[in-house]
Amino acid sequence: MAKYIDFWFDFASTYSYLAALRIEPLATTRNVKVNWRPFLLGPVFTAMGWNDSPFNIYPSKGRYMWRDMERLCQHYRLPLKKPSKFPRNGLRPARIICANHDAVWIPDFVRAVFTAGFAADQDIGEREVVAGLLGTLGLDAEALIADAEGPEGKHLLRRQTEEAFKLDIFGAPTFIVNGEIFWGNDRLQQALAWADGIRD
Amino acid sequence: MAKYIDFWFDFASTYSYLAALRIEPLATTRNVKVNWRPFLLGPVFTAMGWNDSPFNIYPSKGRYMWRDMERLCQHYRLPLKKPSKFPRNGLRPARIICANHDAVWIPDFVRAVFTAGFAADQDIGEREVVAGLLGTLGLDAEALIADAEGPEGKHLLRRQTEEAFKLDIFGAPTFIVNGEIFWGNDRLQQALAWADGIRD
Fold first, then answer.
1. ∠ at Cα B24 (B19, B28), nearest 5°?
2. Angle CA(A133)–CA(A134)–CA(A135) in degrees, nearest 5?
3. Which of B48, B64, B187 sits opposite A183 (nearest CB)?
């Protein structure tokens, strides 16, 4: 039986950065395939009555989150530079992934976007930034960006975000394994164990 | 140097139940003393604009939390019976602890209250339930309850909840080690390692 995990993330999400950078070697160890599923937290938060990141709406939660990220990044040996603006807009790279979800370069592109956002304080919402990241991977940035911003690219991300609602997703990262929901970077290893048939 | 951890919890909090039942053997291994600090989440949530548990206000978060609790309790080999009413009112047992914070029976009483609430679906807000738990520990329930409900007992819990605000606590359980905040049962082991001088 094929083993796989659906990895739902938003490029603006701090804890999604941790999960995105960690997931591939951990999944490989368990022989689990990762399905990279970007979506937009914005509409999900709007439905919960929030017009901004909860880390901005609730200042004590926000202060804690940044300190927690510092400690976790040190633990995982991941770079972290607090973005000068938070949250960033992850719409553009998310559309590119939806329009190319089977491409072999998707994992590298996901990591490049998260790293630009959370280790280099780049604005991942900017066309030139995204074009630069695609170019570094040797890809035809102009063609990919134009394609992702056509009606089909827009439609695919909108549909994926609607699917997140249907799946009862309320935050990111979220891992789904055979209908079982795991929320947060803290649940990555439990979710992968579940995908590997371990129920403990 | 004495090693200790401040363990802030609310008897109504599901993830506090997990931490309360797990903390003592883990702390003993690291030679860390546990300071049991009950407080009331209610005023904290009110200040955040919530008039109920966020697990009730946001149904998708609530559905997830109960499933997550099921999986975690299975993992930790802890019993779980979803309370017929959630959240319960933890005021009465919290006052008893504040009025007797140095007593040797505090850890047993904390575990007894949490177990009554989350493994036996008892109403821990009820005087008779709390009296029964104290009696099982061989204590003078009537005297302890009367004492905790006097002006001094009420004052102590109010002051402790005010202290939680000052410490920037926004949820439970919260662990504080030398001013460093760790939120959630998921951070228990990291917080204890910190108390043990390990910064990784």
1. 135
2. 90
3. B64
**Angle, alpha carbons B47-B180-A74 (nearest 5°):** 120
Q: Kindly state whether residue A113 falls inside one of the protein's structural domains.
A: yes
CA dist B84 and B66 (Å) reads 13
pTM of the model: 0.97
d(CA A106, CA A89): 19
Task: Flag if A64 and B168 touch (Cβ within 8 Å).
Answer: yes
Write the ipTM: 0.96
Does A67 touch chain B if contact means CB atoms closer than 8 Å? yes
Q: How many domains does chain B fold into?
A: 1
Q: What is the pLDDT of residues B9-58, one digit of tens each?
A: 999 999 999 999 999 999 999 999 999 999 999 999 999 999 999 999 99
Domain that holds residue B40: 4-195
Residue A200 lies in a domain: no
Which residues from chain B sit within 8 angstroms of residue A184, using beta carbons? Answer: 186
d(CA A94, CA A113) in angstroms, rounded, equals: 10
Rounded to whole angstroms, the Cα distance separating B114 from B23 reads 13
CA–CA separation, B6 vs B73, rounded Å?
A: 23
| Mutation to test the A interface, candidates B52, B69, B71, most A Cβ within 10 Å | B71
Residues 6+ apart with CB under 8 A from B86: B12, B53, B55, B56
Min Cα–Cα distance to chain B from A162, Å: 15
**Mutate: best of A45, A60, A167, partner B, most B CBs <10 A:** A60
pLDDT digits (tens, 9 = 90+) for B57-99: 999 999 999 999 999 999 999 999 999 999 999 999 999 999 9
Question: For residue A177, is it within any domain?
Answer: yes
CATH number assigned to the domain comprising residue B168: 3.40.30.10
The answer, for A77 touching chain B at a CB cutoff of 8 Å, is no
